[in-house]
Structures are given as structure tokens and as C-alpha cells.
Design brief:
The protein is mostly beta strands. The chain is built from two helices and 17 strands. The chain has three domains: 64 residues, Trypsin Inhibitor V, Chain A (2-Layer Sandwich), CATH 3.30.10; 64 residues, Trypsin Inhibitor V, Chain A, CATH 3.30.10; 90 residues, Immunoglobulins (Immunoglobulin-like), CATH 2.60.40. It has a four-stranded antiparallel beta sheet, with no helix packed on it. Strand 13 and strand 14 form a beta hairpin.
């Protein structure tokens, strides 16, 4: 007895098997192979061809789809964006979303990472998202503030040339004003008097002064004098009155 071979290409495997058995034919799966047109488990080939007349109980060989070909995501980290796109297309994948992010060590325009990660198995044509470096962050520097300086000022209260003392015309009285910058550390201030100017020195004020603090020290003599101001042992100013 002979029967006609039915068309089973394009059918799910179970449905194809049922149709062949109804016709009185046996079947075997010859192989499975990737196929872009049919989902996994669908018949994509048969032998003998549909419409052939063969002996009943004969065997029909089937080829079954495995679905689209599978490919691996290539390693594209730290490659330029253009090179990464090229490798993805060569692997049979598509370029998905591209996101940019700041990165301290990977240069601008180079790939930080991919999603899915390298060596992941995907169906051919699947998209791969890329995270691309914008380069290091450049936080704007705060506007610089003028640096505070140590301020030393002299105010002459009494002198022969300006405001003489009627009882002692040679007498000198001077106020020394010193302001420590608020941004500095505490500093040791020394005010030294020499009277006459070229003879021995006499400490008038020696003290630690806190940042932002102003001290005013009066210095006086019965004749010409030199006043020196030291900060942490370093001479800042010397003036003769």
C-alpha cells in the first residue's frame, strides 16, 4: 500500500508527528539547526518532499529549527565606541542604547562596560547596550578668596614733630596695632623697642595671638626709638620714631 507524504514543514514538531502518524508513516528527526524564520521546535525540512507517494509505514526524515543562531557578546571594554560598534556588528549583534557617564580613568568616547556582559550567549540580532565614558569629572572650583595678610599699623600719639609733650618734648608714644589673619594658625607676636635706636633691645610684648584677633600695644620712650615687630621669630617690620 502506498500513501501521499503530507506537508509538515512550518508545523510544530508535535503537530507534524501527529499528521505523519495519521497518514500511516513513521518519522525520525534527522537533525536540528539554527533558523531565523521559524521558532525553536518547528519543522523546517522534510524528506521525502511533500506530495511524494511512498510505501505506507515508510520513514520521513525531519529537520527541526533551533531558532535564530546564537552568538557571544564580544569584549568591548576600554575600546573606542566606533570599534565597539564594529565588533558587535561583526558578531551578528545590534548596537542598543548608548549611555554616557563620567569616568576618572577611561578616556572620553571609550566603552566602560556592555550589557549584557562579554561572553553572554544571545540570539543573533539581539541588541547590546553600551556605557561610554564622558571623561573625568571637572567640578568647578569655588571662587578664590583674597588671601588675608598680617596687618601691622603704627599710630603716633606723642612725638616732638606732631604732638609734643609739654613736660617732655622728646617723649614718644606710639600705639602698635597687629591683626592676625583669620585663615592662619595662632602666631607668636613679639614687639621689641630700642631706645636709642642703635642700642640694646627691650621686649615690650611677647605673646601668642589667635587667628582673627587684633592686639594694640603702646610703646613709649623719652627719646628716639626703634620699634620692631616679629612674627614667629621672623622680623616683619621695623620703624624709627
Amino acid at each position: 500500500k502506498e500513501v501521499w507524504v503530507p506537508q509538515v514543514v512550518g508545523l510544530p514538531l508535535l503537530e507534524a508527528q501527529a499528521r505523519l502518524l495519521e497518514t500511516g508513516l513513521r518519522f525520525r528527526i534527522e537533525r536540528q539547526e539554527p533558523n531565523r524564520e521559524f521558532p525553536p521546535g518547528y519543522v523546517i525540512g522534510q524528506s521525502p518532499a511533500p506530495g511524494s507517494k511512498i510505501r505506507a509505514d515508510a520513514e520521513v526524515s525531519l529537520v527541526v529549527s533551533q531558532g535564530p543562531p546564537l552568538v557571544r557578546v564580544p569584549q568591548v571594554k576600554e575600546m573606542s565606541l566606533e570599534r565597539a560598534k564594529e565588533l558587535l556588528l561583526q558578531a551578528g549583534l545590534q548596537v542598543g542604547r548608548i549611555e554616557e557617564r563620567e569616568h576618572e580613568s577611561i578616556p572620553q568616547g571609550y566603552v566602560i562596560d556592555s550589557s549584557p556582559p562579554p561572553n553572554t550567549t544571545l540570539e543573533e540580532g539581539s541588541p547590546v547596550d553600551l556605557l561610554v565614558s564622558k571623561g573625568p569629572s571637572h567640578s568647578p572650583s569655588p571662587p578664590s578668596q583674597p588671601e588675608e595678610q598680617l596687618a601691622v599699623a603704627f599710630a603716633v600719639l606723642t612725638s616732638p614733630d606732631t604732638q609734643p609733650d609739654p613736660d617732655n618734648p622728646e617723649r614718644r608714644v606710639v600705639n602698635v596695632s597687629i591683626t592676625i589673619p583669620s585663615t592662619s594658625a595662632a602666631q607668636q607676636i613679639s614687639i621689641i623697642k630700642s631706645s636709642p635706636p642703635d642700642q640694646g633691645e627691650e621686649p615690650v610684648f611677647v605673646q601668642w595671638v589667635e587667628p582673627g584677633q587684633t592686639i594694640v600695644q603702646q610703646v613709649e620712650s623719652d627719646g628716639p626709638m626703634k620699634v620692631k615687630v616679629y612674627v614667629d621669630g621672623a622680623l616683619q617690620v621695623a620703624k624709627t620714631f
